[in-house]
Amino acid sequence: MTPLHTADSQRPKSPALPGFGGCHRLLGRREWLSSFGMGLGGFALAEMLGRGGDALGADSGVLGGVHFPPKAKRVIFLFQSGGPSQLDLYDHKPLLIKKNGQQLPESVRSGQRLTGMSGNQSSIPLVGSPFGFSQHGQSGAWMSDLLPHTAKIADQLCFVRSMFTESINHGPGVTFMQSGSQIPGRPSIGAWLDYGLGTDNQDLPSFVVLVTKNKGGQPLMSHLWGAGFLPSRHQAVRFRSGGDPVLYVNNPAGVSVENRRQVLDGLRQLHEHQFAGTPDAEITARIANYELAFRMQSSVPEVVDLSDEPAHVLDAYGPDARDPGTFAANCVLARRLAERGVRFIQLYHQDWDHHGGLPNGIKRECQQTDQPAAALVEDLRARGMLDDTLVVWGGEFGRTNYCQGHLTPGSFGRDHHPRCFTIWMAGGGTKPGTTYGETCEYGYNIVKDGVHVHDFHATLLYLLGIDHERLTYKFQGRRYRLTDVHGKVVNGILA
Predict the structure, then answer these.
(1) How far is the C-alpha of 336 from the C-alpha of 316, rounded, in Å?
(2) 466, 385, 395: which is closest to 427 by C-alpha?
(3) d(C-alpha 412, C-alpha 364), whole Å
(4) Per residue in 412-466, pLDDT tens?
């Protein structure tokens, strides 16, 4: 290859330019690099267009495979936005009941930061859970009476009681759990998986988001399921509960499938021509998105139509399962998407942010989520899918052991608590009937086997066959990864 740094007289000459009497134009360094890039870009585009026939982008991802044998093929993440109170659901603390109304000891707090919502309180009274707790299954897992259906599958679950995070407020907290960074702009988990592993279904996105309808609480921003600095084709497709599941995926009135195909073919030719002159990955992403949208016109209506689900299956998910957009209906849809090869299915259920009125608020959320979540695990198990499907339940942080605001006999609230909270996982290579980690008797600090958010992400990737240190993307001069610069696999929860 000709050296880049050569004198003008030594540079290779371009072919004669038409209309200039056989004159040759010298090729400058920048132009040479641009031409070289266009050549490589052309090869890349041709290779992408040739894969899988017309299904651009239906491939095995940038990794071309996995680093080691995977335990899970797909993930269903039941994200409970707002921070569910672990002390009223999973982390039984009798001492708080005994000391209800007494002040949080300084020896327990140890000067740790509080949010601005309770940091200026003159009184920080401990508050025990008003709900009964009991042990369930052969594993003896402690669970609140608010979760009768989850209690029945206790031996299928792996509880992690020692999760902790760096975020004390919702925006950074949810972003951190979804992307490994508190600052928006990084790729979400599902985007990383699509980038690394590709898709198993050419007709559906490999990353789908479902949000429970008509919920209050903290807002959910699209960056939570975005691609960040990865090509945009890796971001999630959000399915809506009403009207068209995906906006603009259907043809306008009077436009036939044949007309749409002709339009897309012409548009694709224009994009390919643009790519030949400007080899930008976003152009190929645009082509892939248009082609996927065309295939989704038939695949999406079929997958969201629950009319072929047997009555006993819908009944198992609870009374809301026949109402599109509810958490129960989304759990049924999540299973259907998993059956069809969707790799990462993200459900969001809001309104767990109980700064006040916690007893009534948490009871309401459990009524909406307990039965469907348990039914999803059982449904997957009955179909032989739980072994290679990882189900995750959890929020962005936990709640305090003390009361925010005024403690009354019938009601109270709990503030944000990042130092310890509980999630559970089922299937996908996790160890069933396990409780991992331990918090202090006050439920304020971790005393055994802490699991950082990056550790959780590293373990999730490991279960999918990925070394979290080797799935990277170079951006602005450095290589990024989901686990940033640290994180370790939690071997104690692996089957």
Answers:
(1) 15
(2) 385
(3) 15
(4) 999 999 999 999 999 999 999 999 999 999 999 999 999 999 999 999 999 999 9
